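Notes to self after the call with IL:
- keep both proteins in one doc
- input above output, always
- annotate only the second one for now

Protein 1:
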Amino acid sequence: MLEILECTEYIELILLNKDARMISALEQYDPQIYELLRQEEVRQSGCIRLIPSENYISKAVMIATGSCLTNKYSEGYPNKRYYEGQQVTDLIETVAIERAKKIFKADHANVQPYSGSIANLAALNALVEPGDTIMGLALSSGGHLTHGSKANITSMFFNSVSYEVNESGWLDYNAIEESAKKYKPKVIISGTTAYPRAIDFQKFEEIAKKVGAYHLSDIAHISGLVVAGLHMSPVPYADIVSTTTHKTLRGPRGGMLLCREEHAKNVDRTVFPGQQGGPHMHTITAIAVALAEADTAEFILYSKQVIKNAKRLSEKIMEYGFDLVSGGTDNHLMLIDLRKRNTKGKVLAKALDRARIVTNFNTVPGDDASPFNPNGLRIGTPAITTRGMKEDQMDIIASFINTVAENVDKDTVIEKVGREVLLLCSQFPVPEHFIIPTTKNAIF
C-alpha cells in the first residue's frame, strides 16, 4: 500500500513538473549550456534589437527547428533519396516547396540551402562556369560578400566586377547599364544587404538582356516585404532568386532558391550533390511552418508596420541631425552616416550595446575607413515590430540613439538609457504566436 502511495505521489510529481516548471533534459544534463541559453533569452527580451537581419521566430517555428527531424538523414530530393525511411520527410519537404512556390509565385523552389551564402554560390554555379564574369553591387555600396567581394570565395571562382551607388546613395540604373556594357558579365546580381531604397528588378532584367547576361536576384533582406506585396518581386524578372528564410520572412536560419522552370534541374543539381550533402530536415520543417505564417493577413499587417516604423524612425533620427544614406528609407532598414559627427560606427555601436540597443557598425558609400572600424551604423525594424512596437516607440528609440551618440563616453548616461530601454521592453513582451489559428492554418 505504501509502495502504491509513493508511486502515485511520484507520478503526480512528474505530471506537476511537466505542466509547471519541469526540469528540462538540457537543464538536467548540461546545466552550463542551459544557463547560457537562459541568459541569451533574457538578453533578447531585455534589449532593443535593431540589427535589420535579425528577428524573433514563433514558438511553432522554434518547435519545428528543434524537432525529431534533426535525427533524419535525407540525402537527395523527395522520391529520389539515397536513404530509406523517407515516408514523412518527403511529405514535409514537398509541403515546404509548394508553400514557397505559392507565396513567391515561382515555377520552382529549392528549400535545401543551408544559408543564403550557400544559396548564392549554388545559383551562380547553376548559371555560369568558373572564370566567367559576374557583376554585383560593391560591398562598400551595400552589396553582400557573396556578390563578388574580393574577400569571398565567389571572387576566386569567378571574375568579379562591381557597380556602385551614386553620390546620393541611390542605385543609378544608367550607370549600371554602362558598367554592364563595359564588362559584359555573364551574370548581373541585383539585391543588397545594406541598401535602404526600393529596387527596380525589371530594370535589372532589361540591362541583363541588353548584354546577354543572366539575372540573379538576392532578396535575403526584403523577402518578407516581397511576399507581403510591399516591394516589387524579382521572380518575374530574374532567372534565379535567392533568399534567406529569416530576417523579414521571420523563419529559421536557412536559405532558399526560386527559379524559372528552365533552370530547375541545374539549381537542384548544384545544391545537391554539387555543394551539399544531406539537407537539414529540421530547418526545412521550420521553413514550411514559417511560409505558412507568411501566407496570412497577419503577416501582411506586420510587414506594413515594419515599413511604417522604419520610415518614422528614419525621420526622427534625421531630426536629431544624423545623416542617412540616400536621405531615408523605403524598406526595413536605414544606414546612418556618422562622418559629420566625428564618431566611428563601431564606437557608437558599442556604446548603444551597453545601453541595451543592439545595432551593427557598417561601411557607408565613399567610406575610406576600415570595414572593422567604419563610419556607418546599420539599423532596422523587423524585430522591434514583431514585439508590437509602433510609431510612438520609434520616437522614443530615436531619442535613445541620440542621447547615447552625444554621450558615448559617459557611463552614467548610458546606464540611465539602459534602464529606460528595459522599461520599454517590459511593455512589449516577445510574443510566442504571430497568427490566429484557423482551419486553414492550424499550425499551433
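Protein 2 (the one to annotate):
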Amino acid sequence: MRIRLVSLFSLVAAIGLTAGAAQAADKFECPAPGGQDAPKLSADLVKNLPTGGALDKLDTLQNAVDLLRTNGVRASSTVNYLMASYCPWLAGNSQLSAADKTKQMRRFANRVTGLVYSSQNADEIIFSVPLNPAEAADLEARAREAKMTPGDWIAKSLRSTLKTP
C-alpha cells in the first residue's frame, strides 16, 4: 500500500525548510525568489502553473507538483518555486495578521513538501491536524477506551461520519 503524506507540521521541520526567515511579530515578508536553486522554466510552463490562492486547493497544488515533476524540476526546486508563487498572495491578504500569515505559510510549506516528496500513486492520504492539549487528551482517552490507537480511532470516527449524509 502506498501512502501520500500531507503533513501540517512534521516533514518541513524534519528537513529544515521553513516558510522563510523568522518573521517579526508585526511584519510578514516573502523572501526574494531565485537563487541557485531556482528552476529554469520555459515561458509556456510558467503560463500553465497556478499561483497564489489557487494553490490552496489540494488538487490544483498536486497538479502543479506533477507538472513541475514531469518537466524535470528537482524536488527542492519545486518546493521553493511553489512557496515563492504562494507567498506574495498571502502577504497581500490584509485580513490576516503577520503571525497568521506566518502560520498559514508554514502550513502551505508543509503541504507542498509532503506532496513533492511523497509517492505519486497513493492509496491513502494522511493528514496531520494540530490539536490543543485538551483535545489531544480527550482523543487519547476515547481511543484508549475503545482499545484503539488514536490514529485508528480518528479514522474509524471519520469514516463513519463521512458515510452519513
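Annotation: The helical segments are 10-15, 43-48, 58-70, 75-91, 98-117, 133-145, 150-163. The chain has seven helices and two strands.
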